[in-house]
Amino acid sequence: MKDNIEEFLIEKGLLITALSSIVIILLIIIFIFTEGLPSIESVGFFKFIFGSTWDPSSGEYGVLPMIVGSLGITGLALLFSVPLSLLCAIFMAEIAPKTVRKILKPVIETLAGIPSVVYGFFGLIVLVPIMRVQFGGTGFSMLTASIILTVMILPTIISVSEDALRSIPHEYKEASLAVGATHWQTIKNVIFPAAIPGIITAIILGMGRAIGETLAVIMVAGNVAQFPNSILDPVRALTSNIAIEMGYATGIHYSALFGTAIVLFIIIMILLVVANYFHYKKKVTIGGGYL
Amino acid sequence: MNRIISPKKAQKIMKSVFWASGIITVIILLIIIGYILFKGLPVVNLEFLLADPIDSGKSGGIAPMIVSTIIVTVIAVLVAAPLGVGAAVFIEEYTKENIIVKLIRFGSETLASIPSIVFGLFGLAFFVVFLGMGWSLFSGGLVLAFMALPTILQVSEVSISAVPKSYAEGSLALGGSKWQTVYRVILPAAIPGITTGIILGMARAMSEAAAILFVVGSALAMPLSIFDPGRPLPLHLYVLATEGISLDNAYGTAAVLVLLVLIITVVTNTVVERYSKKMMGR
C-alpha cells in the first residue's frame, strides 16, 4: 500500500516537471503580451507593424525598418551559409573518411558553442575594419552583420542536414550505384532530394537562430533605425531595437519594446509551424521508404 | 550529347568541392579561435583571473565575473536539470504519445526557439518587476534555467528512448516497480546522454548575455550572495567591447570564454563517450 502511494506521488511529480515547459511558455506569452499590447493598441496595429519611422522622442513607433533589417540580415546570411553548410553536410555524411569526420564533428560542436558575444567581438575587432577598408563608410553594415551570422548558423544547418542525409535508407544509395551512377550523381539525384524535408528544417532552424541573435548583431550592424538603401548601409534588427533602448525606456516606449518582442515572437512561431510541417512529412516519407 | 562535362569528370570536380567546403569550415573555426586566443591568452594569467576589475574594467581582473558566471550557471542547472530530466522520464516511461505529450513537445520546441532577448524581457517583467526579485544573480539564473530546459529535456528524452526495452522488461519481470525500474535500470543506462544534455544546457546558460542583460544588474562588485546583482563573463565582454573600455581586457575575457567552450567540447567528446561505451556496451 505504501509502495503504491509512493509510486503515485512520483508519477504525479514527474507529470508536474513535464508540464513545466508549457507553464513557462504560457508565462512568457502572458507577460510579453500584457506589457506589449498597450503600445500596439495606442499606436494602432497597422501603424506599429508598417510604420516606417521609429522615433520614441516624438512618439513615432513603427517597426518596419527593423523588420526589414532583421529579414535582410537573415536573408543574406542564409544566402552565404546555406551553400557552404549543405556542401559540408554532404561531405560529412557521404564523402569524408571516418577520421576526417571525427575531426569535423568537434569543430562544428565548438563553432556552435562559441558564445555569440565572442562572435560579435570578433566581428567588431576584425571584420568591421576590413569592411571599412574594402567598401568605405564605417564598416558597420547589414553585410557585416550577415557575414558574422553566416558563421553562427553554419553549425545548426550542417548538423541538422547531416542527420537528414544520414537517415536516408541505404537501399536508395545502393540501388543508384548498382545501376551505374557515379557517387556524385547518386548524391545529386537520389540522396539529396530524399533528404530535402530535413534540409528545409535545418535551414529554418538556422534562420530562427539568425533572426533571434541580438548582441553579435548589435556589435557590427550599425543599428540605425532606417530603411537601408544598400547592403552596405547600417541597419537595426528587431532584437537590437529591444536591447539598445530597454535600458532607458519608460511608459509607452517601454511597452513598444515589448511590442517589438511580440513581432519577433510571431515571426519565430511562423518559422516553427513551417518547420513542424516539413518535419512531419519527413517522418512519413522515410517510414514509407522502409515499407 | 550536349553534355559538356562527363559524369566521371563531374564526380572528380564535386569531390574536390566537398573537400574544400569541409576544409573551409575548419579554417573558419581556426581563424576565430586562433585570433581570440592569440590576442587574449597573453592577458590571461592568475592575477587576471583572481583580481577585481579596476576603474570599471579598464584594468584589473575578472574575478567577480567568474564568480557571477558560476553562480548563474549553477542556479540554471539546479533548476533546469530536474525539470528537464523529470519531463523526459515522464514522456518516455509514464505515458503514451497523446495530446499532453504533443503539447509538452511543442512547449519545449517553442522555448528552444524563442530569441534570448525575449527571455530577457520576460525575466525583467516577471522576476525583476512582478515578483519583486530585483536585479540579481538569482533572477538571472532562473531566466537561464528556462533557456537551458529544452536542451536538457530533448537530449535526455533521446537518450532514455535509446535504452533497450529489454532492460526495463528484465527489471519489471523480476518484480521491480515502475519507479525502481526507472531509477535503478533506465536512468543509469541513459546517464551518459543525460549528462551530455545537462552539459549542453549548462554551456548555453554560461555563454548567454542577451537574456540576462536587464536581469542581473551588471554590477562590477564581487557578489556576496545569490541575491546580489552581478555581471557574468559574456555580459562583461559585451560591455567592455561596446563601450570601448579596454581592448586588452576584452581579449582576455573572450579568451577565457573560448577556453571554457573548448574544455566543455573535449569533456563531452571524450569522458562521456567513454562512459557511454561502458554502460551501453556499445
Q: In words, what does this structure look like?
A:
The complex is a heterodimer of chains A (291) and B (282). With 291 residues, chain A is mainly α. Chain A has a domain at 77-244 and 274-290: MetI-like (MetI-like fold, Orthogonal Bundle). Chain A is 81% helix and 1% strand. Chain A is built from eleven helices and two strands; from the N terminus they run H-H-E-E-H-H-H-H-H-H-H-H-H. Chain A has helices at 2-43, 45-50, 64-95, 98-113, 116-135, 142-166, 170-178, 183-212, 215-221, 238-245, 251-290; strands spanning 54-55, 60-61. In chain A, a hairpin with a 4-residue loop joins strand 1 (54-55) and strand 2 (60-61). Chain A is globular and about 70 Å long. Chain A starts with a helix and ends with a helix. Chain B is mainly α and 282 residues long. Chain B has two domains: 1-40; 46-280, Orthogonal Bundle (MetI-like fold), CATH 1.10.3720. Chain B is built from ten helices and two strands; from the N terminus they run H-H-E-E-H-H-H-H-H-H-H-H. Chain B has helices at 7-40, 46-50, 63-94, 99-113, 116-130, 137-161, 165-173, 178-206, 233-242, 247-280, and strands spanning 53-54, 59-60. Chain B has a two-stranded antiparallel ribbon with strand order 1-2. In chain B, helix 4 crosses helix 6 (137-161) and helix 5 (116-130) crosses helix 6. Chain B is globular. Chain B starts with 6 loop residues before the first helix and ends with a helix. The interface between A and B is large, with 87 and 86 residues.
Shape of chain B: globular
Helix content of chain A: over 70%
Q: Give the second-level CATH assignment, the architecture of the largest domain in chain B.
A: Orthogonal Bundle
By helix and strand content of chain B, what is the structural category?
mainly alpha
Q: In this structure, how is the largest beta sheet of chain A organized?
A: 2 strands, antiparallel
Low-confidence stretches of chain B: none
Biggest β-sheet description of chain B: 2 strands, antiparallel
CATH level 3 topology of the domain at 77-244 and 274-290 in chain A: MetI-like fold
| Annotation field: number of helices of chain A | 11
Q: What's the overall average pLDDT of chain B, rounded?
A: 90
Mean pLDDT of chain A: 90
Topology pattern of chain B, helix = H, strand = E:
HHEEHHHHHHHH
- Taking all Cα atoms into account, the compactness measure Rg of chain A is 23 Å
CATH fold name of the largest domain in chain B, please? MetI-like fold
* The CATH C-level class name of the domain at 77-244 and 274-290 in chain A: Mainly Alpha
Radius of gyration of chain B: 23 Å
